[in-house]
Amino acid sequence: MQKITKLLFPIIAIIMGIIAIVSGVHKMVTKDLYDSTVTATVVDVQEEWDHTGEDSELVYHVYIDYEVDGVKYEHVESPESDSTMQVGDKIELLYQSKDPSKISGKNITGNSVIMIVIGAVVAIGGIIAEIRALIRK
After folding, report:
1. Nearest to 133 by CA among 24, 14, 22
2. Averaged in consecutive runs of 10 residues, what is the pLDDT profile of the chain (137 residues)?
3. What is the pLDDT of residue 97?
4. What's the pLDDT score for residue 137?
């Protein structure tokens, strides 16, 4: 059982790393689709404890309302959130003019690069761990 676990966790890390890389590249490729800006209003902030890692952390889910061409989008989860956001705050977001329901934070490129780098580090770490586990086997 322990041998299987030592082989399985690196494979999961590799898969998660690849998913992060693909997601970052996809966001980078589609960033030009987010061609318009909108000011959204924070309407709800929910706190939730995330117990998935070794340490628990408080995660904030921020919900916004915004309007594009007379169409209201209500209680939509914001692509950006942090502990300083409060109900009533205004935030600038990008949206796709062809589909205003698709929104993104203002720093698409920076966030995409971070996802790619983190994904690469996790995937490489998983590959190294897998190789070490196979050598020890």
Report:
1. 14
2. 77 94 91 92 91 81 96 95 91 94 87 93 94 83
3. 93
4. 66
Rounded CA gap, 18 and 135, in Å?
A: 23
Q: At what angle do helices 108-136 and 2-29 cross, to 10 degrees?
A: 160
- CB neighbour list of residue 18: distance below 8 Å, 6 or more residues apart: 119, 123
Distance CA 112, CA 115 (A): 5
Question: Distance from CA of residue 76 to its chain's centroid?
Answer: 15
CA atoms of 22 and 56, how far apart (whole Å): 27
CA distances from 124 to 16, 17, 32, 53, 112 (A): 11, 8, 29, 20, 18
Report in angstroms the alpha-carbon separations of 13 from 22, 101, 121.
Answer: 14, 32, 10
Residue 28 pLDDT: 87
- Helix, strand counts (H, E) of the chain: 2, 5
| DSSP secondary structure letter of residue 30 | T
Rounded to whole angstroms, the Cα distance separating 55 from 82 reads 18
